[in-house]
Amino acid sequence: MSTQKKSERPVKVTTQTVVDMKSAGEKISMLTAYDFTMARIIDRAGIEVILVGDSASNVMAGHETTVPITLDQMIYHTSCVVRGVDRALVIADMPFMSYQLTPKEALKSAGRMMKEAGAHAVKLEGGKAIADSVKKIVEAGIPVMGHLGLTPQSIYKFGTYKVRATEEKEAEDLIRDAKLLEQAGCFGLVLEKIPADLAQKVSEEISIPTIGIGAGGGCDGQVLVIHDMLGMNKEFNPRFLRRYADIETVMTDAVQQFITDIKNKNFPNKDEQYGG
């Protein structure tokens, strides 16, 4: 009989896991990914949640906003990410106009994201206006994460990416919407680019975890776009961004060295080619 131990399978992170993490006071880590290779790297590094963000519209397709990306394109990116993940919870953004029309249409779109892409949960932007859609999706057995504050899909409505909910009325509306989304069945909530004290207040007043991006340290977790965090896009410099690497420089140097080696006939060398 073989004495070799079977490799232990990683413990899957679920929606209940992140809810329990909030209860235990453990902070939640989340990053975006849009392809198999990146997803596999950050999953193996131990990230708890991977968001397949509609920010793929910006960082993968080069669009100015998140508005142009389609449901089919998000399904493609999500399916690539899911295939690279063994442990992390994979949440997929529902793109613009895939859920805003009616709760029935929202459920249909969310169902496609689960069945065709293999997502573990979906994320929707908005508050009161989408509460009925959230409820319908959740009732069908699909986990939903909400998103309040700066909602990039509404950029043409607000006309700016400035900090949201700095005025008392908007702050009160955001707190109301957070509670409505919790009541509708959301298991978690992204808070984007709002005052830190407001984000902490929301986090304390709802039982589901909050994930902040530009919302201070009082949230239950934090998320960044992977390309920004790794320094692959130096033109984007918001206050909330901390770069953990300078991949743009590393890649540029590597490509330039590759070009130089070819020009100087140093690549390939004898050890990098095959004999007859």
Describe this structure in words.
Helix 6 (131-139) links the parallel strand 4 (121-123) and strand 5. The protein has eleven helices and eight strands. An eight-stranded parallel beta barrel has the order 1-2-3-4-5-6-7-8, surrounded by seven helices. It is an alpha/beta fold and 276 residues long. 41% of the residues lie in helices and 13% in strands. The chain has a single domain, classed as Phosphoenolpyruvate-binding domains (TIM Barrel), CATH 3.20.20.60. Helix 5 crosses helix 6.
- What is the radius of gyration computed over CA atoms, rounded to a whole number of angstroms? 21 Å
- Discrete helix count: 11
Strand percent estimate: 5-15%
Order of helical and strand elements: HEHEHHEHEHEHHEHEEHH
Low-confidence stretches: 1-6
- Major β-sheet strand ordering: 1-2-3-4-5-6-7-8
Please tally the β strands and state the result: 8
Name the CATH class: Alpha Beta
What is the helical fraction, as a range of percent? 40-55%
- Indicate the overall shape: globular
Taking the sheet with the most strands, its summary is:
8 strands, parallel, barrel
CATH architecture annotation = Alpha-Beta Barrel
Spatial gap, N to C terminus: 45 Å
The CATH topology corresponds to TIM Barrel
